[in-house]
Amino acid sequence: MTIDDIAGALGVSKTTVSRAISGNGRIGAETRERVLEYIRCHNYRPNLVAKGLAKQRTYNIAVVWPGDYTSFDLPFFQRLLIGINSYLSERDYDIIIAVDVGNDYTSLKRIVDNRKCDGVILTRTLKRDKTIAYLQQEGIPFVTVGSCNDASVTQIDNDNRGACCELTQILLAKGYKRLVLIGGPSDQVVNEQRYEGFTDAYIRAGASPEEGLAYMDVVDDMHLHTVLSDIIKRHVDGIVCMDDYLAAQTLIKCHTDEIRIPEDIKLASFYDSSALRNSVPSITSIRFDDHALGEEAAKAILQKLDGCVPRNEKLRQYNVVLRESTQ
């Protein structure tokens, strides 16, 4: 079925049908409803190429994927992408993946320069984010999965700070007062939020983290093993890792050095994964709804494309999962 067919069946012009479909142009409410009802009854779907030309849209959304992710990061980005796609595909949008590392946005710039997308979803934010600055300069609609310090940016994020605070409070309430924190790159906003959540828990308990027991910018196995060797000498109550990769590597190091978890030291992670659920012992962690996070980001970018101003969202859909490693 074509627009010509609909126009002929209803006795109206092709322009009238086109205006009813697009929602643009002057057309009576009764006529528009008559056209739309005919379309619903006959299951008509307008050709996306023609629809795109009419609205000057590509019906593509660029999703920027960090090229420096690890195998432990992959499940998060997969679930996030599935959530984004499930929302967009129902609305006739497709995804284009741009893989960039840090503040190098070469891949995204090529997509934007070639006018291959209508909007952008960033899946990671940095403290000094050049990609955000680039998109603002170019006037490209975008949203971030993750927080940033620019209030003008639409931000969709998990409540990382609140969740990490909650897990740390539970450990403190169990009597584990000397906790070590191990974190990744400090230029990533999510790690800053995790650090803040950790310190918030101590403040709420009327205490403060012991000086020198927070290790940031631990980005490779050699550095992590050096840090763990130092931690083990300090006879702490527990180790809290900012992500599942750090937690899994800590578990391996403890096994190698014949340090028993949880008997000799407790272990927890600020992010959950199947590796932690199936490890021996299983590791206490925080489980977020990454699929819902992706759907909210997709919803926000389409709202921006429609001229709306979406609200920033802080999803509190998480569970602290207590397992064997902190018993």
CATH topology heading of the largest domain? Rossmann fold
Largest sheet: 6 strands, parallel
Q: What is the count of helical runs?
A: 13
CATH class of the largest domain: Alpha Beta
Overall pLDDT confidence = 90
SS-derived structural category: alpha/beta
Shape: elongated
Strand ordering within the main sheet: 2-1-3-4-5-11
Short description:
By secondary structure, the protein is α/β, with parallel strands linked by helices. The chain has helices spanning 3-10, 14-22, 29-41, 48-55, 74-89, 106-113, 130-138, 160-173, 189-204, 221-233, 244-256, 274-277, 290-305; strands at residues 60-66, 94-100, 119-122, 142-145, 154-158, 179-182, 214-215, 238-241, 266-269, 285-288, 313-315, 318-321. The strands form three sheets. A six-stranded parallel sheet has the order 2-1-3-4-5-11, sandwiched between helices. It has a four-stranded parallel sheet with strand order 7-6-8-9, covered by helices on one side. A two-stranded antiparallel sheet has the order 10-12.
Q: Can you describe this structure?
A:
By secondary structure, the protein is α/β, with parallel strands linked by helices. It has 3 domains: 3-55, lambda repressor-like DNA-binding domains (434 Repressor (Amino-terminal Domain)); 60-158 and 290-318, Response regulator (Rossmann fold, 3-Layer(aba) Sandwich); 160-287 and 321-326, Rossmann fold. It is built from 13 helices and 12 strands. The chain has helices spanning 3-10, 14-22, 29-41, 48-55, 74-89, 106-113, 130-138, 160-173, 189-204, 221-233, 244-256, 274-277, 290-305; strands spanning 60-66, 94-100, 119-122, 142-145, 154-158, 179-182, 214-215, 238-241, 266-269, 285-288, 313-315, 318-321. The chain has a 6-stranded parallel sheet, with helices on both faces.
